[in-house]
From TrEMBL:
<dbReference type="InterPro" id="IPR003033">
    <property type="entry name" value="SCP2_sterol-bd_dom"/>
</dbReference>
<dbReference type="GO" id="GO:0005829">
    <property type="term" value="C:cytosol"/>
</dbReference>
<dbReference type="Pfam" id="PF02036">
    <property type="entry name" value="SCP2"/>
</dbReference>
<dbReference type="InterPro" id="IPR036527">
    <property type="entry name" value="SCP2_sterol-bd_dom_sf"/>
</dbReference>
<protein>
    <recommendedName>
        <fullName>SCP2 domain-containing protein</fullName>
    </recommendedName>
</protein>
<feature type="domain" description="SCP2">
    <location>
        <begin position="33"/>
        <end position="121"/>
    </location>
</feature>
Length: 125
């Protein structure tokens, strides 16, 4: 399943534990294309916990697409649990603190990981 970054649903309707098929939608809703200029990357997101799974994101030319599944040779892999990801997206938790506390693992391009902090906003705001 591939999802384009069209915002056609309301994130506010998503509960704290989103359904598996809503994870990519939440990430697409949080994406800020105006802040993604110059980024060309494939990102793997591995989530554990309730409704966790493997997801991928492709960013290029200020455009984001993603879906469920794995990709080969991502530029960056983010490993976390669902609650930590939701806390980061809602700005309840700082991604750097989550990293240093071991709740978020980053494999690959650390510079890209730092850029992503600015590229994704709180989808509930």
């Amino acid at each position: 399943m591939q999802v384009q970054s069209e915002k056609f649903w309301r994130v506010e309707e998503i509960m704290q534990e989103p359904e598996k098929n809503q994870i990519t939608q939440i990430l697409l809703q949080a994406f800020q294309p105006e802040k993604a200029g110059g980024i060309k990357a494939v990102i793997q997101v591995e989530l554990s916990g309730m409704n966790g799974g493997n997801y991928y994101l492709r960013i290029e030319n200020g455009h984001l697409e993603g879906g469920e599944g794995r990709v080969e040779k991502p530029h960056l892999t983010l490993v976390s649990d669902m609650q930590t990801l939701m806390d980061i997206l809602q700005k309840k938790s700082d991604p750097m603190n989550a990293f240093f506390q071991g709740r978020l693992q980053v494999k690959g391009d650390m510079g890209l990981a730092m850029k992503l902090i600015q590229v994704f906003k709180n989808p509930w705001s």
